[in-house]
Amino acid sequence: MVEFDGAHSLSSSASQTFEDQNRLPQIDDIVKSSNRTYHLIAILGEGGYGKVFHAVQNGKSYALKAEKYKSSMLHIEIAVLKTALKRGAEHICELHDYGAVKPDFVFMVVTLLGKDLYKLRNEQPDRHFSISSAVRVGIHTCKAIEELHSCAFLSRDIKPGNYAVGLEINKQHKRFFLFDFGLARRYLDKNGKHQKSRGEIGWRGTTRYGSLKAHQKQDLGRRDDLESWFYCLVEITCGMLPWRHVAG
To answer: Per the database record, which ranges form the Protein kinase domain (predicted)?
Structure first.
């Protein structure tokens, strides 16, 4: 078991025990923030730059996301979640804590959620929801986008895999939450005015759910989040999108 103190940098002697910098925590490690201690008990997901853990603090479960210090974009997610928390958002996952262990990783702690919408759809007969269920899901997921936009941020990656149902233990099992804001961008400046389009900026998002402007590699706006949301609705209602098997 290794202990990480998020309130302070690791000592040079401790850092030298690792093969290189940007070491991510592992299962059974202890991660400390300025006033809390988290025990990592399982991996929920992982990618090229980070991992998401099931973490326990004083008997309560959370999701702890850790990313390599030098390549982390967690500051964007933390900014989104802090704003959403201040505004009392009901359909955006709640931020509980965050910190950094220099020079290895940055982390944030959010409410632990249940299965994502992509997995839930695949568990249904014919891989789609009934009309009534799809309508209820659509209302929740649209409200999440409305809350995000009211925080002056765009998602730029709306997809079923970025929505998850809450847990019954938290009395949130009848509500869907939006999470993962790694591609989020502020669309209002400090004066509350819309930022000007930057024109062609390259691809952003997930190909299957990308808007027309995303495929044209143009700067995205609120309408593009809603267009991606509409494609999600088509998929959970019909079971697939018309271009599912299109390559290129």
So the answer is: 38-248
pTM of the model: 0.89
pLDDT tens for 173-184 read 999 999 999 999
Per CATH, the homologous superfamily of domain 29-111 is Phosphorylase Kinase; domain 1 (3.30.200.20)
Which residue among the candidates 97, 104, 116, 157 is catalytic per the annotation?
Answer: 157
CATH of domain 115-238: 1.10.510.10
Please state, rounded to an integer, the average pLDDT across all residues of the chain: 90
- Percent helix, strand, coil in the chain, to 5, is 30, 25, 45
Q: DSSP state, 143?
A: H
Q: At what angle do helices 222-238 and 131-150 cross, to 10 degrees?
A: 160
Angle at CA 43, nearest 5°, toward 40 and 47?
Answer: 125
46 beta partners: 51
Does residue 116 have an active-site annotation?
no
